[in-house]
Amino acid sequence: MSWKLILEIAKALMLARIKQTLVAAIGVLFSISMFIALLGFMNGLNSLLDGMILNRTPHIRFYNEIKPNPNQPIELSPEFAADLHSIRSVKPSTSRLALHNSRAIIQQLEQDPRVLGVSPKLAAQVFFNVGTLDLSSNINGIDGFKETQLFGFEEYVIEGRVEDLNQLNTIILGKGVADRMMAKLGDVVQVTTAQGNRIQLKVVGVFQSGLGDFDKTNSYASLATVQKMLGQPASYLTDIQVKLHDFNQAPQLAKELGAIFELDADDIQTVNAQFETGSAVRNIISYAVGITLLVVAGFGIYNILNMMIYEKLDSIAILKAIGFSPKDVNRIFITIAILIGLVGSSLGLLVGYLLGLLIDHIPFETDALPTITTYPIDYNPKFYLIGGVFGLLTTYLAGFFPARKASSIDPVEIIRGK
Amino acid sequence: MTEKRVLEAKSISKYFYNASTTQVLDQVSIQVNRGEFVSIMGKSGCGKSTLLYILSTMDTDYEGQLWLDGTLITGKDSTYLSQLRNEKIGFVFQFHYLLNEFTVLENVMIPALKLAKHPRAEIADRAMEKLRIFDMQDHAHKKPNQLSGGQKQRVSIARALINDPLLIMGDEPTGNLDHKNSALVFDKFKELTQELGQTLLIVTHDQEFAKSTDRTIEMEDGKVV
Hints:
The complex is a heterodimer of chains A (418) and B (225).
Chain A: H1 3-16, H2 18-55, E1 60-63, H3 73-76, H4 102-111, E2 115-130, E3 133-142, H5 144-151, H6 153-156, E4 157-160, E5 170-174, H7 175-181, E6 188-193, E7 198-207, H8 212-217, E8 218-222, H9 223-230, E9 239-244, H10 250-261, E10 264-267, H11 268-271, H12 273-311, H13 313-321, H14 326-360, H15 381-407, H16 411-417
Parallel strand pairs in A: 3-8, 5-7
Antiparallel strand pairs in A: 1-9, 1-10, 2-3, 2-6, 2-9, 4-7, 5-8, 6-7
Helix pairs in contact in A: 1-14, 2-12, 2-14, 2-15, 12-15, 13-16, 14-15
Chain B: E1 5-18, E2 20-33, E3 37-42, H1 48-55, E4 63-68, E5 71-72, H2 78-88, E6 89-92, H3 104-115, H4 120-133, H5 149-161, E7 167-171, H6 179-196, E8 199-204, H7 207-211, E9 215-220, E10 223-224
Parallel strand pairs in B: 3-8, 3-9, 6-7, 7-8
Antiparallel strand pairs in B: 1-2, 1-4, 4-5, 9-10
Helix pairs in contact in B: 3-4, 3-5, 4-5
């Protein structure tokens, strides 16, 4: 059976009802384009919000937790070995926060093929002395280059430059901290450490992470500056932050490496489980809305085909009389449905893309997100693929039942009825 | 003998099941030979049209046997029957059943395009030739709804001829036409049998029409008289 003839007849039937056909195709176009725009927008926002936290969070963080010593003296006594030990009023031991043998650990981590990068950190509690006030704050000693490379630190520095941290005794203040102290670039601020050391630091930058609370209590300086402030040697670190190639491996690797290094290890999934859940729920909602739109468009096609069949009963009857088999008639109507779907879907994908571009250009400025100037859009090809496949699938299904009805029309009944 | 016999129906019976069972055809047996112009005549409701639709292979709900061109076709599947109708049977109905979406020429071409035995250009030539038989060549590129009733019916006969069918079946082909046009259609049928040896089987209730055919099968109450 020649497809050319089927196509020709399908085309003629569609042209005979061009208005309804167009309405049906526009229905598909509308739903597919909304589907694409919605998913693109939703996922753009998702990844923006997730990125705010997740991109800046190490996949695994190694540190020493403050906790009581698990090996209490009574455990060692053979006299009570068989007894149940109950110790009251246990206090955390004075074990140090600094990581033991940090240099070797970093070296080994960097050689691990699963690890993308390692960034050391030294957190210190300090007071900024402003006039008669002491503001408590954290100073994070970091390697500015690695922090930028792994966690995009540079993006959040809204004034000044990250490179200036390499000079000794410089600091990048959180936006909140800077506002409170009314400190500007080039100012010198005085810092007192918990141990009582005083030091003067020059402000070389201001950062804004988008999380207000964080910006109010955190500042960054170079590792060397913080080590000097605390009077500690160059190997003194409190955190090792690791970024992996595949962050899904984080929980397993955290367990494995934590045991080897005898350190506490937190993985990103455990720390930020709620973000994953939020994204998943938002995704489900946008898929549900998109697919609902498609189903509605499917009903449009179903209607137009049904109407076409009632109007063209005579034509279907004669086609059958002159030798078109039920299968051929079925193909004609399926072809109509698929054609409407194909035209509607492909235009819908295009319009969806254009809608995305449009949204992408709408200004969206917020203090919380200094790097964002317009609404974020995710142009993931996956959405286009899903949209296209679902578009064709619904139109096929919408055509399936009318086509089956057309193919089962008895020509004798129609022709004798005249 | 079988070579000459185009169509043979052996004791065909049919029932309508509508609340009660009614027998519409009772053991009808007929034969049509090659080149014959046969008419089936009878009063309205005698079952002649019902018989024709069984003979046309479109109605498969009957008892008995139907042979076409020496092959038993009772019990074949619908795809086979469609193919068979396309290739071997031409239809002319009371109503023309032309597709308004296509031109006159395309309407004539469709059965041949479906058969796909010849390339499109050749089919167009043949369709033109068939239209010429009915003096319709000048209207080839019009749409059917621009034609008069008589012209439409002539086009539908040309369509029935396009695949050079073994047999042309007609159900009251002149039923909707005025005297002048039905005479014209009848003359064309006559011409087809005499000049081209075309086999025709026409159902009619028009006595005059039936009289001028080679052979008339008369039916009454579901039986051949």
